[in-house]
Amino acid sequence: MADLVHQLAAPRQVQADENRQRAIQLRMSCVSYRTIAETLGISVGRAHQCVMEALAEMREQTHEAAAHVRDMELARLDVEWFHIEGKHDPRSLDSKLKIMERRAKLLGLDAPVESRVGGSLDAPPIMVMDARELLRQKLDDMERRQAAMPTPALTNGDAPHDDGAHTANGDAP
Length: 173
Fold this sequence. Notes:
mainly alpha
């Protein structure tokens, strides 16, 4: 019985995964939820849900990949530390300090570095961030914008009809 349930659920899961991937591709190409729904043959609400699920999955994958890279870098630094442990010459001490600084950055123990790029000294500083943080912020912004977009209420699984005729306050003329 469990095998039968698994066999029936597997094609639906594959279809759901494909819908999520296609929905996020379309949305990243600035396609409306209505068009995504029509393209995939699903409701507008489900199209929105597919995009939100894909964004959450992307965020999780990014966090996992970043954690993996960080762990590898920390292990590499541990090996380097081991090779200079017990040495007290100036070069070894300098290497130890650099390893400690790098570990602190990888573990997020240091504040962001402030840098000035061109312009006058009166110009506001530009904060230098790593690519992971920038990607995380962009994903958060995208998700906030998506969440702020109104999702039409659906009845009986039908997508609402929108003829595009609305006034400035959103009411039909």
